[in-house]
Amino acid sequence: MNVKLAHPDIVTRPIGFDAPPLLRVAGLTKRFGGLVAVKDMGFSVAPGEILGLIGPNGSGKSTVMKLIMGIERPNAGQVMVDGTDVAGWPSHRIARHGVGLVFQHSRPLHRQTVGENIKLALLPDSLLKLIADPGVDHRARVIAQRVGLGAVFDRLPATLPFADLRRLELAKAIARDPKIVLVDEPFAGLTSGEVGAFCELIASFRAEGRAVLLVDHNVKSVAALVDRVLAMYLGEFVAEGSAAEVMANPTVRQVYLGAGTIETSARADIEDRPGAPLLDVRDLSVFYGKAQALDHVSIHVKQGEFVSVVGLNGAGKTTLFNAISGLVPFTGSVGFDGQALAGRTPASIARGTGLAGGIVQCPESRELFDSMSVRENLDLGGSRLSAAERRRQLDWLFELFPILQSRASQVAGKMSGGEQQMLAIARALMMRPKLLILDEPTLGLAPVILEQLSHALETLRTTTSITVLLGEQNVTFAIPHADRVYVLEHARIVWEGDPARFAREAGGAYL
Amino acid sequence: MSRLIRSRLFWGALGLVLIALLLPLGVSGYILGVLIPAYYFAVFAMSWDLLFGFAGEVNFGPTFLVGLGAYGAGILDAQTGLPISVCVLFGALLAVVGGLLLALPALRLSGPYFGLITLVAVLLLQQMVTVFAHVSGGEIGLTIPDVLSIDDATNYYFALGFMIVSALVLFGLSRSSAGLILQACGQDPVEAQALGFNVAKHKVAAFCVSALFSGVSGALLVFYYGTASPGTVIDIAVGVQVIIAAVLGGRRTILGAVLGAVFLVAAGEILRPLGQLSTFVVSAFALVVILLVPAGFLGTLLYRRASR
Known about the structure:
- The complex is a heterodimer.
- Chain A is an alpha/beta fold.
- Chain A contains 20 helices and 20 strands.
- In chain A, 34% of the residues lie in helices and 24% in strands.
- In chain A, helix 3 runs parallel beside helix 5 (162-175) and helix 13 runs parallel beside helix 16 (417-430).
- Helices cover 81% and strands 1% of the residues of chain B.
């Protein structure tokens, strides 16, 4: 994100407001089955204050937002909106009580114009209201002007650029005149120029005395705008304070960057070996609808190399891997083993050609077959191997991840996150990939599990000739194994080099 | 531009209505006899489009609602001999109750699960008709003592009038403020709720309105035919025809359903010499249209340029 970092000496507002908070959350807890997504969260937002709620993917920040809006029901806790506890109310009543949510993904009514979409938000919740009040049209136009949609009021949403669709979401939230505005990833998919305009719009909420909660992956993107930041991880409170304070907080740094000092062990000779790279990605761009997720990304990986792509959540790592695996359409070229991958199906890319393995991705979401046992998941991965080969591969993997052997007959969905991650990696390895892509394997895992995973990766690197492309937010995890590092930021590759140099140069500016 | 579209639609519809009004002057009773059930059929399809296109609920059993209206009215007439208007009202009421019964699972389940329930509802109704054959006439059908009229032109104008009134109400509703909210509830219920709309309330209302028009139309069809049989008003195949008519005409257009219904019924009649093959040809054509122009007849005419 190209938002300038707030310096401690120009913090926008003093912390601690005199007015009673408009939103006060206390003891908020949400469980999904055995998983505690949000644990005893508490915070408050005063009128005219902007609070940033940050945390990496899976930290529970979005769940907190959904609990406040009533999209999910909390298991325990209070959500006080202007003095009334709305916890457990249906969403539409909470909305009527003065809470508005600006959704990250816009899904406007496509056969209605921009104006009609805004008018929708101005309508009362009535079955018998067949004709809108005469004032509605005027109010819709005023709101459209305010968010910068005045000129496209009569156009259909499909003809608008991405930023205008986000403006439309803002307009709908404004139309409800909420006391509390929740904004989900306010700047996702916007260019740096557009970010400025959106900052001004959101700042205008503050000027009007609304309480604003911004939910985002990292401090950096919201630092310029927020009065206060609250960081959470694994469903729990981590730190609170000004943007600069939270960024300097050791626990936050540990969550984002990993713990301890970074040791590197790059094998510099691999990249310099002669011959074409195994994976050669050139000028890869990906659009989701109108949002650009990757902007002319070029990377390459040599046979036997271990390459890490580091970047914060939302930078585009998963999109890059999905493009390589043939899961999302792209422009540019992806070459693998001397052949272009364009036009191949994801299954054929994963299988590879002939006897040689292909590109197997172990996705961020793991994508295990939850109701199958560990052994069944692994057997599916090795379904193309002969019985003897499969047995050998299994034995090797059980050596690499001993825990999987003891859990062989257990249902995958019932295992802990760390065990699931190991199973996902093992299943990918059962396919004997020529290139293994690991997407964010540390996501939401406890430190002790990270150590086990790290150990397994080290064994993999030193005892086999496997080629690995690792995507990570946690640099402490990503750097030690890497032979080479790319930094992906806001859809672009912004840095490339060896890990030792990364520790010196890029690490500081990373968060 | 939106005003231009609207006027194009208005003039087109007006032209078609005029042609329909003048038709009895120039064509044979045979053609009127084909068009009358087609008009009732069109109301089934329009009611279905309100649920599918606007409330976002895929009801695979439109004939559950139609059948309740038809058999409710037919059985009451056969048993008590009450006036036709009372019987139609009773059938409509029964259909609305059926609509509420369908709305309950629709609010809890989504996608294929709800679709399955609507299919089972049709099978249950069909079973009921067979089991209680002494009142319902069973598989053979129920003979109804009263008919609307024995004159073709009267029946034709009645069916046309009913269809036009239904179209005006349903189309007006779909373009009203309440229709806009319903459309939002169907497309993105989470966002609709976050905008303060009670999604359950709007969907239940849509089920009731859809059931009301399906039921009245089913009841009137029975009083036109003078009989009610599972094969004409309940069978899953009839329901599939209703769905095809609505999709063929254009999802989320309401009026497109009329084009789709008249086309389906007319094509089936024209191709009758082909025997069993006629159903195949019509279905294959419908399949091709749905594959190539999923927006349907009217959807393509009105929104093709706008949506791409």
